[in-house]
Structures are given as structure tokens and as C-alpha cells.
Design goal:
Distance between the termini: 48 Å
Shape: elongated
Strand content: 15-25%
Strand order of the largest sheet: 3-2-1-6-5-4
Radius of gyration: 53 Å
Number of helices: 19
Number of strands: 20
């Protein structure tokens, strides 16, 4: 109570004017200096973060530009390798066997695979057209290919190709009829990029070599993944991609997952937020922007690429689905070039755009904020610790006194402090506390002595009638089953089970600890059953040996053995039309169990020495102080006999499970003892009654009696 009042007093002081001035030195130092230090660190961190983010954004744009250059270079190398392969093939012998061998060797190398290889001759019989599909090479009739377009797509002029010059087309649709699998005619579609050059040794003929546009797309997909040396940061789904566009303003295809090399060409991410024309002959996924948020930026980028320039522009203005919005994106672009002749200059074939929505600068900025936060936190912690050490050295004597007093309060003891304190003020305070503790100890000793005397006198007082009789709220079954004395949920349940067992004429198994009233339960079942007027015979199987128990149960005729001078009916016959109670049934031997099983199954018995069976009408109530189920499972008791006996099962509760009946039982046993002894009334003290209720009673009611 004193501690509670002190806390209330402190809270009132904190709310009053000047409460902060009366707070501890450590509190005042922490509250004053720490916020100031945090504010300085916060302003410094924000300023540093602002300038660092500008530099980080510049570095990110440069990284994007380098990445776009690397991807464009990958495409240029693929096209250049294809051009060289075409020129090499055009200068050799062009027959079907050689062309097949060239395709097979090329497609098994690590270079980009070829789709078509053709020799187009002015003489149709000399033309050869080979197509690869599913790692197989097929020769098919020469399809209708616009020869003039192939021959004159060179530098935008109409000059015919010379030997050593190569013409490169855009993405075109190719259709073939191939014998694949079990079918003889399968239509195969492909989107290809074709290269054409004059044949060196075939006058008037030209050689064509094509690659799948999807193979070029896969180069970009691989370069935009962790499998590429261009990888600079962990890719996020749909957060960074690239796309290829031609000089006419058509977006041809975008990068995809490298795990899906057979996926069709797509432009869904590249055209996000823009309006325009979707699809052109031979390429249904091509897209040409004409309006929308990013169309202006796209056409500016195309204009720069047409002039052979590269750079970084703001993003297209729209975010793909699933990408979180951030405050800075950029688009890096780089022209893709192609050399049409061996010694001629490179010409622009198209452009590559690389968009990164993963926002590396923002991520790095977050990390910088984390670093600044950690540094500020560490500096604050260090400053706080320094202030704490200073205040700790100043207030150590007072804290020592307070700690010892609080320890005594928690331990519930009062002892003099006996502290060695140096300064005069705290030494005087310690002596005053020791004097106060001494005074309180003397007063507590006096109070304790008085309490012990009062308690001793109270325990020696006679227990009241209510304490002796316990709960007076008797149930309706108190008078119905007087054999079972007591109240409470467990006793009420036992009485209910007794009445249920008495209402049906079947065998009953009673289980319960020793002294819990199994004999009384069996007698109550018999008294309340339809057999109440017939005999109730009780046999304790644990008191008799095997032969004597068999003779007791089934009887014998005169002369059955040497000492059988008279006839004995046996318990089954004597209990005819009544009840036979078999206590401690678990003690019966195997031979006795066999005989009991036959008697229960057939309801006949055969006395010893008799050659005929005697029919009996008897109800069996068996009792056991151990669980018969466990004995049956371990093989120490016949399971078939167990199931014969337990048609109904009743458990008698232990006394420790209904302690509320201990006072009433004690009063009843004492009254009975008084009547037998012929003495006056004897009562229990309150202390004795409390001990009785708290005891566990392993012997149950019998031990209590």
C-alpha cells in the first residue's frame, strides 16, 4: 500500500509545474541531449541522401546505356556470324549433300541455328530449298519468295547485289508443308529473318540463309537474365525488359523468360500505355505506336536511332502490370547495325531499347537510408550510454539503497542494509533506513506472535456443524440409494449408473480402487433390480485357492472326493434367480476363468462328481481393483470372459476425486463409532478437518473409516 501511494504521489508531481526539474539526473540528460543529437544526425543524413541519390541515378543511367549497348552488340554479332556463314556457303560447292552437311554442322554448333538454306537458280531444276525442323533437314519445293525484294534490300537502293554483298530482310512469315511424325503433310509456320547473296560459282543464282526471329529474341532474353555477363542486378518479374524496333517505327519483339525459348514473339510489355497499329503482313505481333503516353518518347528515340545516336530518355510513361510505381525510370536505346558488304560501312538495321523499372537508384537510396539510420542509431546509443555512465556514477549510492530496499520488498524479508557508503548524505540516509527497518521488524515480530496465537486457537476450536456435514444440498437420489453416501457430480453419476444397471437384467463389471465401495455398489444394483427378493451371494475370489474357489462356486455331490460326506450346492445354485457378486475377479486362475466362461455362456453348472448339468438363472456382478482391459491385452485374463462380464461397466470414483464428501463421511463414521462405544459426542477440530480434506487417501473410504 505504501509503494502504491508513492507511485501515485510521483505521478501527481510529474504533472505539476516543475515536475521535470524534480526528475532524475539521468532522465534530464537523456531527454535534453539525445533529441538534439538525433536532429543533427537526421538533417545531415537527409542532405547526404539527396546528393547521393542524384549521383546514383546518373550511375544507373550509365549502367543502362552500357547494358543496352551490350545487348545490341549481341544482336549484331549474331547477324554478323550469319552473314559470314552465308558468304562462306555461297563460295563453295552448292549441291544437296554439301548443303545438308553445312546445315547439320552449323545447327550443332553453339552459334545461332539456321532455319532455311536455299540455292535459287534461274533454272528451276537446279534450285534447292532446305528447311530444318525438330533437328531434321527436309528438302521441299522452292516456295514463292519475292526475289526482287531479297535482291535489292541493300542500303535502300535498287542496285543489284554484287558478289560479297548481303541483303538482310525484316521479319517475314514462312510456311512449309513437312512430313513430321506419322503424318505426311504438316503445315509449319515460322517467322524468319533472311539473308541473300549471289552465288560465286553459279551464274545468275543466289544463296539464301535465314534464322528464326525467336532466336534473336532469345539472345535478348538470355542477355536480360542472370545467365548473361551483362547482368548487373537481380531481375524482377516484368521489371526490366528490352525490345527491338525497325527504322519504320515498328516494334518487332520484346525479351522474354529464357526458360521459354519456344514462346511466340510478343510486344505486350513494349506497347503498354501506347495506342497504334497492331500487326502487319507476316508479323501479327508487330506494333507501330501512333498515340498514348509513351508514343512521343518512342518517336524521339526512333529519330535518334535513325541518325545513329544512342542515349537515355525518360521511361515510356506507363508501368507494366505487377510493377510497383516509383519516382524514377529511364529508357536506354542503342542502334543495331549490319554490314552489307565485306569492306563497306555498317548501316543501321534497327534499334534496341532497354527499360529498367526495378529502380536500382531507389533501392540503393533505401540502403543508404538504412545505413544512415544505423549510424544515427549507433551514435544515439553511444551518446546515451555515455550520459548514462556519467549519471550512473553520480547516482550510484542512491540506486544501491533503492535496489536493496526493492530486493527486500520482493523477497518479503526485512534486514538491515549494512552498506558502506562514502558520502555523508547517502550514509545518513542508509542509517535512517536501517533504523526504520529495525523498528518495523520489532513490530512485525509482535504481530506475528499474535497471529500465531490466534491461528492456534482457531485450529483448536471445534468444527461447526456446517463444516462437519459439508454441502447440505442433497440430491433426490440421496434417499433412493442410501448405500452410496455422498453428493457431488461423481457420486451422482455413480448413482445414475447404478439405477441404469438395476433396470436391465445383464451382467455388470465394476472397476475401482480398493476401498471405493464396489461391494456397496453391487448390493445397491441388486436391491434396486427385479431380483431384489432373491438371494445376493458374494464371493471374494482373492481369498480362496483354485480348488476351494471352484468348489465354492459350483459345489459337489456326496462322495465326489474323500471328505465329501455331504452335498454342497455351490454359489451359482444358491444364487438362483438372484445375484452372484464375484469380487477381485482378476485373482481367478485360468482354470476358474474357463469354468466361469462356460457357466456364463450356457447358464449351466456341473457340480463336482455329478454327471449332469444344472441350469441356473443368476445375474453376475464382477468387481476388480485393476483395469481388466489391460490384463486382457497382456494375456493375463481371458479376453472372451472379459467381454462376457462387461456388458455394463461402472467405475467407482476415488475419494480424492470427491473431497467435498470427506466432512460428511467423517461425521458419519464418528457417529457410528460413538454408537458402538457408547460414548458421548466427539467432534473434530478445524485443523484436523482441514488435514483430512487435504490428504489424498490412497486407501479411499475404507482408509478414512
Amino acid at each position: 500500500m505504501l509503494h502504491f501511494k508513492t507511485n501515485l504521489h510521483w505521478k501527481r508531481q510529474a504533472k505539476e509545474p516543475g515536475g521535470f526539474a524534480r526528475s532524475s539526473l539521468c532522465t534530464r540528460l537523456l531527454v535534453t541531449l539525445i533529441p538534439l543529437a538525433v536532429l543533427i544526425l537526421l538533417v545531415t543524413g537527409i542532405t547526404t541522401y539527396s546528393f547521393s541519390r542524384i549521383f546514383l541515378q546518373t550511375a544507373q543511367e550509365r549502367t543502362q546505356s552500357v547494358t543496352a549497348y551490350g545487348m545490341a552488340r549481341e544482336l549484331e554479332m549474331a547477324l554478323e556470324n550469319t552473314r559470314r556463314s552465308l558468304l562462306f556457303a555461297a563460295s563453295g560447292v552448292l549441291d544437296e549433300a554439301g548443303m545438308r552437311d553445312f546445315l547439320a554442322r552449323s545447327n550443332h554448333s553453339k552459334q545461332i541455328p539456321f532455319r532455311e538454306f536455299a540455292l535459287v537458280s534461274p533454272f528451276p531444276d537446279e534450285s534447292i530449298f532446305l528447311v530444318t525442323s525438330r533437328n531434321e533437314i527436309f528438302r521441299i519445293p522452292l516456295p514463292e519468295i519475292p526475289t526482287s525484294e531479297l535482291l535489292f534490300q541493300h542500303s535502300g537502293s535498287n542496285m543489284a547485289l554484287r558478289v560479297g554483298d548481303v541483303s538482310l530482310t525484316g521479319i517475314e512469315k514462312a510456311e512449309y508443308v513437312l512430313p513430321l511424325g506419322n503424318a505426311t503433310r504438316n503445315m509449319v509456320f515460322s517467322q524468319v529473318v533472311r539473308m541473300v547473296t549471289p552465288a560465286t560459282n553459279h551464274k545468275g543464282a543466289y544463296v539464301m540463309l535465314s534464322i528464326d526471329a525467336a532466336a534473336l529474341r532469345n539472345i535478348l532474353s538470355r542477355a536480360n537474365s542472370t545467365r548473361s555477363p551483362l547482368w548487373a542486378s537481380a531481375p524482377v518479374s516484368d521489371a526490366r525488359f528490352c525490345f527491338l524496333f525497325d527504322l519504320s517505327g515498328w516494334i518487332l519483339f520484346q525479351s522474354n523468360s529464357p526458360d521459354e525459348p519456344e514462346a511466340p514473339l510478343m510486344t505486350s510489355l513494349a506497347r503498354t500505355g501506347m495506342e497504334g497499329t497492331l500487326g502487319r503482313p507476316g508479323h501479327p505481333e508487330a506494333f507501330q505506336p501512333s498515340g498514348g503516353a509513351g508514343a512521343g518518347i518512342f518517336w524521339n528515340m526512333l529519330s535518334e536511332v535513325q541518325r545513329g545516336k544512342h542515349g537515355v530518355l525518360p521511361d515510356m510513361g506507363c508501368l507494366p502490370a505487377g510493377v510497383e510505381s516509383t519516382d524514377h525510370h529511364s529508357l536506354a536505346y542503342w542502334p543495331v547495325t549490319f554490314r552489307h558488304s565485306r569492306d563497306g560501312p555498317t548501316e543501321i538495321y534497327g534499334g534496341l531499347a532497354f527499360i529498367d523499372y526495378s529502380n536500382l537508384s531507389l533501392s540503393a537510396g533505401y540502403r543508404q537510408v538504412d545505413v544512415i539510420f544505423v549510424i544515427s542509431l549507433a551514435a544515439t546509443a553511444l551518446l546515451s550510454f555515455t550520459i548514462f555512465l556519467i549519471s550512473r556514477s553520480l547516482t550510484r549510492p542512491l540506486r544501491l539503497l533503492a535496489g536493496r530496499v526493492n530486493a527486500m520488498r520482493h523477497q518479503g524479508t526485512l534486514e538491515p542494509l549494512h552498506l558502506t557508503l562514502k558520502d555523508r548524505e547517502t550514509r545518513g540516509l542508509g542509517e535512517a533506513i536501517d533504523n526504520l527497518i529495525g523498528t518495523v521488524q520489532r513490530q512485525m515480530d509482535e504481530i506475528r506472535a499474535k497471529d500465531e496465537a490466534i491461528l492456534k486457537a482457531a485450529l483448536q476450536e471445534r468444527a461447526t456443524v456446517e463444516e462437519m456435514n459439508g454441502d447440505k444440498r442433497f440430491s433426490d437420489m440421496e434417499d433412493v440409494i442410501p448405500e452410496i453416501f455422498g453428493t457431488g457430480p461423481r457420486i451422482e453419476k455413480l448413482k445414475t449408473e447404478i439405477l441404469k444397471a438395476a433396470s436391465v437384467d445383464v451382467d455388470v463389471l465394476i472397476e475401482g480402487e480398493t476401498g471405493t465401495g464396489k461391494q456397496l455398489t453391487a448390493e445397491a444394483i441388486h436391491r434396486h433390480s427385479a431380483r431384489a427378493r432373491a438371494p445376493f451371494i458374494s464371493i471374494n475370489c482373492g481369498e480362496l485357492d483354485e480348488n476351494l474357489l471352484l468348489d465354492t462356486l459350483f459345489g459337489h455331490v456326496k462322495g465326489a472326493f474323500t471328505e465329501a460326506r455331504t452335498e454342497r450346492k455351490g454359489a451359482f445354485v444358491e444364487a438362483h434367480a438372484g445375484t452372484l457378486f464375484l469380487d477381485e475377479i482378476q485373482s481367478a486362475s485360468a482354470k476358474v476363468q474357463q469354468a466361469l466362461l462356460r457357466a456364463l455362456a450356457m447358464r449351466v453348472v456341473r457340480p463336482l462328481g455329478c454327471d449332469r448339468d444344472v441350469a441356473v438363472d443368476v445375474r453376475i456382478i464382477a468387481a476388480s481393483n485393476v483395469a481388466l482391459m489391460e490384463l486382457a491385452e497382456s494375456g493375463r485374463f481371458r479376453s472372451d470372459l472379459y467381454y462376457r462380464l462387461r456388458v455394463l461397466m461402472i467405475h467407482t470414483p476415488a475419494l480424492r476425486d470427491h473431497r467435498e464428501n470427506i466432512p460428511r463421511l467423517a461425521r458419519r463414521f464418528m457417529d457410528h463409532a460413538q454408537n458402538l462405544a457408547g460414548r458421548g459426542r466427539v467432534d473434530l477440530s478445524r485443523g484436523a478437518m482441514e488435514r483430512l480434506v487435504q490428504y489424498d487417501w490412497p486407501g479411499n473410504v475404507r482408509e478414512l473409516q
